[in-house]
Design brief:
The complex is a heterodimer of chains A (74) and B (315). Chain A is globular, with a radius of gyration of 12 Å. Chain A has 74 residues and is mostly beta strands. Chain A is built from one helix and eight strands, in the order ββββαββββ. Chain B has one domain (49-314): 3-Layer(aba) Sandwich (Rossmann fold), CATH 3.40.50. Classes of the chains: A mainly beta (74), B alpha/beta (315).
């Protein structure tokens, strides 16, 4: 994982989480993405190309991915 | 993962229910569950004139849209706390939903009434912003219900909100608050409206999924004053427990509701206070208070501002 597109090689997918952009070189399952970001399944939802996806969904090269934290309040 | 109903690719897996759904069938599942909650606990009755407390977040905007889809007419009420872009963007999102569903929203501007934002109001009161915010919101929302004839105030509190609050009350044994977290609160005729929480048994994750699938443009940012709040810490702790043992939060809250009903039956009415009414009424405005002047009037007095409650109406 790298932040802010540091790699010049072909980009696999971009992930937006908490307003920050992350770039991953390989396609991966949503469950793996959550592990990479060290966040829980219960506290987050993943949207790929404007569609909600489950943890066994394989994210593909070029996918536009957004991780949404669901916990709110104070 | 496949949708349990149609076999198409699932959008969401609900581990606490051991089920997965596509977009369409999740919406149906969610709406049916909320309808069941409303019926079972008689949250909305025929003849009610409800209003929704909206904040611009996923919970309240989802509730507003849900009611619209169910054919339940409900206007909205928003308290603008004067927190810069956060308040401005929240109001934009609320107005967009109001336009979509064709409903009115009453807006109370804290800076217009108190001549300063909530941070400064809290400083004057020597309280934290969340405490001043809660006091003003409770007051303003009740006031509008009484003045404009809404007998029922609906809020977007979800399962995680309730579980976190209960967890905190149990951790510190806050007995005064422990039995006040019911799914609905009774009215005090002419003073307080009835209150209900239709999403009480829906997890925060389910409500967020409902908002996303429904295309609701809600504010993702947190209130800047909620950073480091204990509620969020409790939610994270409960989230970790839920991750390891799905369904725990629902059991926790369902168990509480059952226990609460038993407590109500065991004690004579009046000996177990589950409402928020005080023992008397404010001499200035008539709002229930523990004694003497209510918090809202005390705040105005401290700031040397004459008593006033004004709302902007949008839509």
């Amino acid at each position: 994982m790298t932040s802010n597109r540091q790699y010049a090689k072909e980009i696999a997918m971009n992930v937006n989480w908490e307003g920050r952009e992350y770039t991953f070189e390989k396609p991966m399952l949503v469950s793996r993405l959550l592990e990479e970001l060290a966040i829980t399944r219960e506290g987050h939802l993943v949207v790929a190309n404007n569609k909600l996806v489950t943890e066994d969904h394989r994210l593909q090269a070029g996918d536009n991915v957004r991780v949404i934290r669901v916990v709110s309040g104070g | 993962m496949k949708c349990r109903i149609c076999g198409q690719a699932a959008s969401i897996a609900l581990r606490s229910h051991k089920i997965a759904f596509c977009d369409t069938h999740f919406l149906i599942f969610f709406e049916k569950r909320v309808q069941t909650t409303i019926r079972r606990y008689a949250l909305i009755q025929s003849g009610d004139r409800p209003i929704v407390a909206v904040s611009g977040g996923k919970d309240s905007l989802s509730l507003w849209l849900f009611l619209h889809r169910m054919g339940i007419a409900a206007d909205g009420i928003y308290v603008d706390l004067g927190i810069g872009d956060y308040s401005r963007i929240s109001l934009e999102k609320i107005k967009a939903v109001a336009d979509t569903i064709g409903k009115k929203v009453y807006i109370f501007h804290v800076p217009d009434i108190f001549q300063r934002g909530i941070r400064e109001v809290a400083k004057v009161l020597r309280r934290v912003p969340c405490s001043a915010c809660g006091m003003i919101k409770r007051y303003v929302m009740n006031r509008i219900c009484v003045e404009k004839g809404y007998n029922l105030l609906l809020t977007g509190h979800n399962l995680d909100d309730e579980a976190a609050a209960l967890f905190g009350n149990v951790l510190y044994w806050k007995k005064d608050y422990l039995w006040k977290k019911d799914i609905s609160l009774d009215e005090d005729e002419g003073h307080l409206s009835r209150k209900a929480k239709p999403f009480f048994l829906c997890s925060e994750r389910e409500v967020a999924a409902y908002a996303i699938i429904s295309g609701i443009d809600y504010i993702y940012d947190e209130c800047p004053f909620s950073k480091g709040a204990k509620t969020i810490m409790y939610k994270n702790v409960l989230g970790n427990i839920e991750e390891a043992s799905p369904g725990t939060k629902l059991m926790f809250i369902k168990g509480y509701l059952k226990e609460l009903q038993e407590m109500k039956q065991r004690f004579l009415p009046g000996n177990l206070r589950t409402d928020e009414a005080g023992d008397g009424y404010c001499g200035v405005c008539g709002y229930p208070s523990g004694g003497g002047m209510c918090g809202y009037c005390r705040t105005l007095q401290k700031l040397e501002i004459p008593y006033t409650v004004e709302f902007e109406e949008y839509g």
